[in-house]
Design brief:
This protein is α+β, with helices and mostly antiparallel strands and 435 residues long. 40% of the residues lie in helices and 21% in strands. Bound molecules: adenosine-5'-triphosphate (ATP) and magnesium ion. Residues 86, 116, 118, 123-125, 128, 130, 262, 281, 283-286, 308-310, 312-313 line the site of adenosine-5'-triphosphate (ATP).
Length: 435
């Protein structure tokens, strides 16, 4: 590949979000910000880069992410750093290192790019984006139910219907130790059927084998013993409590005893919103409890639960549901012809923006004759054209013309424009004003 070509291509699996695509992102960002605030969650922003050791310890050595997907590098000071592959580790690190934990109950959210060296395909990228919610210091199933209720409300607000909720409980670490032995015994009995990854995990973390995406492994995984049958009584109670609350809230779910999730830190409740509308990718929003993670990272023990949704996947679902706003057109497009008129037009536009701060004024840039400027005005989607010419200017007037109907052109003294424009727009109120 010639050096030039190389330099102007984006890195594989890392995408631009073009102006034509950005409306869905902005709507999702706006709706989630309002929803999180209404539920009492506060935004936290954490770095994109953290010490590699943080992710190894939080996510677990025997996971796809840590084994083969992290963007890890040594900086010029010799530190091993990693581009974050997920958000929970950084949020927990921030809570510990800023002293936010100490007996506190934290409801936090964050969002931004995540990085995983996966095989890029539709809905699966190497730089992708997540919106992430974490609740720290809550032990009971009520917060589990509230988080799930929040996501269900989000789908409703976005018009997304092709999603369904899967639930499972992973029990406590102790319950998993008992189950782990059963599982190892089972997989050892079928060792010849295990792929290389699974064979390695058999020693390090056999539960991970259940999360294998290898189609050749599915039959073996399907017949494996179930964690649900080895749940400790407290986790069972927690899970039953959650299910009862969800039923009370009218939220449908299916219990999937094979849902284990791709990260090691989960315990008890895990959940995933899945869809059949995104081809090979079915996970839209995933999360769970991580009651043991914080002490593992050196913090005061606190139960916690969180989830993350993939922005690209949610935005795709929004597009399919027709839930993306059209870009906002200007209210007024300002046309000016003649040297003096063009100079005056810029100053006039600024004055109108001062006087009418809720309206959008777009000034014609780069000159052009009236015909060309009207063409641009039409293309901008504006409702109204404000027309300034040298001869009108001498008389201290400008014209307003509807771009929506044939109601013709009216002339107004410049000082009257700020009062006339809202009145005329109100008369015109049509489709693009509806939003
Ligand atoms: P998957 O099973 O699709 O690999 P995951 O279990 O690895 O997902 P999490 O680590 O729980 O996903 O991340 C939460 C959400 O982030 C997922 O539900 C999905 O919507 C999104 N996501 C995860 N990996 C990617 C990726 N490589 N590209 C785009 N979105 C992703
Ligand atoms: Mg994954």
């Amino acid at each position: 590949m010639a050096e030039n070509t190389f330099a102007v291509q984006s890195v594989r699996g890392m995408n631009d979000v073009l102006p034509t695509q950005v409306a869905g992102w902005q709507r999702l960002e706006r709706v989630t910000r309002e929803l999180f605030t209404a539920y009492g969650f506060e935004e936290l922003r954490v770095p994109i880069v953290e010490h590699t050791a943080l992710f190894k310890r939080a996510i677990g050595e025997y996971t796809d992410i840590v084994e083969k997907e992290m963007y890890t590098f040594t900086d010029s000071g010799g530190d091993s750093l990693t581009l974050r592959p997920e958000a929970t580790a950084g949020v927990v690190r921030a809570a510990i290192s800023n002293g936010l934990l100490r007996g506190a109950r934290l409801k936090l959210w964050t969002s931004g790019p995540m990085f995983r060296h996966e095989r890029p395909q539709k809905g699966r990228y190497r730089q992708f984006h997540q919106i992430d919610v974490e609740a720290i210091g809550f032990a009971g199933p009520d917060i589990d139910a509230e988080l799930i209720g929040l996501t269900a409300r989000l789908w409703r607000q976005l018009g997304i219907t092709r999603v369904k909720l899967k639930l499972n409980s992973l029990g406590t670490a102790q319950a998993r130790r008992v189950y782990r032995e059963k599982l190892v015994e089972y997989f050892r009995g079928h060792e010849s059927l295990l792929d290389a990854d699974s064979r390695r995990r058999l020693e390090g973390n056999p539960l991970r084998i259940l999360d294998s995406k290898n189609p050749d492994m599915q039959a073996l995984v399907a017949a494996a013993p179930l964690l649900t049958d080895h749940l400790d009584s407290e986790s069972r109670e927690h899970f039953d409590g959650l299910c009862a609350m969800l039923a009370g809230m009218g939220i449908d779910y299916v219990i999937d005893p094979r849902l284990v999730r791709g990260l090691d830190y989960y315990s008890r409740t895990v959940f995933e919103w899945v869809t059949d509308a995104l081809g090979a990718q079915d996970a839209v929003c995933s999360g769970g409890r991580y009651d043991d993670l914080i002490p593992q990272l050196g913090g005061e023990a606190q139960p916690a639960i969180g989830f993350a949704m993939g922005i690209e996947r949610v935005v795709e679902l929004m597009g399919q549901a027709g839930a993306v706003d059209a870009p906002l057109a200007p209210h007024v497009y300002i046309i000016a012809s003649g040297e003096r008129a063009q100079r005056t037009a810029l100053a006039l536009a600024e004055r109108l923006r001062d006087d009418l701060p809720t309206l959008r004024f777009q000034s014609n840039m780069g000159g052009g004759n009236f015909k060309a400027q009207f063409r641009r005005a039409d293309r901008s989607g504006a409702s109204l054209a404000l027309i300034l010419g040298d001869t009108e200017l001498e008389r201290g007037v400008a014209s307003l013309k509807s771009l929506r109907d044939e109601s013709g052109q009216t002339q107004w003294p410049l000082p009257d424009l700020a009062a006339r424009i809202p009145a005329i727009l109100a008369d015109l109120a049509g489709p693009t004003e509806a939003g």
